[in-house]
Amino acid sequence: EVQLLESGGGLVQPGGSLRLSCVASGFTFNNYAINWVRQAPGKGLEWVSAIGGSGSGSYYTDSVKGRFTISRDNSKNTVFLQMNSLRAEDTAVYYCVKVYSGSYIINALDYWGQGTLVTVSS
Amino acid sequence: DIQMTQSPSTLSASVGDRVTITCRASQSIRNWLAWYQQKPGQAPKLLIYEASSLENGVPSRFSGSGSGTEFTLTISSLQPDDFATYYCQQYNSYGSGTFGQGTKVEI
Fold first, then answer.
1. Tens of pLDDT along A31-67?
2. What is the pLDDT of residue A55?
3. Which residues of B touch A113 (CB under 8 A)?
4. Chain B partners of A44 at a C-beta cutoff of 8 Å?
């Protein structure tokens, strides 16, 4: 059974940092890209970032470029999202998501974690 | 960047109705489009990928069509479990995976 478990969310002040983790199981981890998708309270889905299975390619939405860094440790089946210089508008539930096919880094998303809430507020 | 526009934003329907949701891309995305269903307090669920391919386990009353810039999600006979919010997502752009703004299907 495919499972993705996020952790690391919480309350942080504007300008602060958080590191989200996503531990995966139930599939050959290094064969699949992982994406992060966020959802602000009461709002729609926003694609945030993606990393290839080998970790060699990564992409970001414009609003987080230069502030967020995605990485992975395939020996621990874990993906990370390092979030720096956080802003109020980064407040959201952050989902870790597996791509449907291993062929592309950005792809349809078939398995989602339960999400972790990040709140940026003073 | 590719923009995705869904319509309508809200749709009022009854059990048994045929429901159609439209998603338009700001430029051609070939057939690189997915549809998701999200219920309150839950993570989204993949329904359709590559514009018209039904994900395993998804009821056949769901179908997707379109290519290029115009896409539709159709529910042939709305069931009580289908009241939810639906999102389209493009994944043609190599640098991003933009979602539409969502369509809430309500009674």
1. 999 999 999 999 999 999 999 998 889 999 999 999 9
2. 87
3. 43
4. 87, 99-102
Mean pLDDT of B53-66: 97
Q: Which of B44, B50, B96 sits opposite A45 (nearest CB)?
A: B44
Question: B83: helix, coil or strand?
Answer: coil
Dihedral through CA B8, CA B14, CA B15, CA B16, nearest 10? -80
CB contact under 8 A, A108 and B45: no
**Strand order, beta sheet including A68-73:** A3-7, A18-25, A78-83, A68-73
Longest dimension (CA), chain A: 42
Question: Mean pLDDT score of chain B, rounded to an integer?
Answer: 95
Sorted by sequence, the CB contacts under 8 Å of residue A119 that are 6+ apart come out as A9, A10, A11, A12, A91
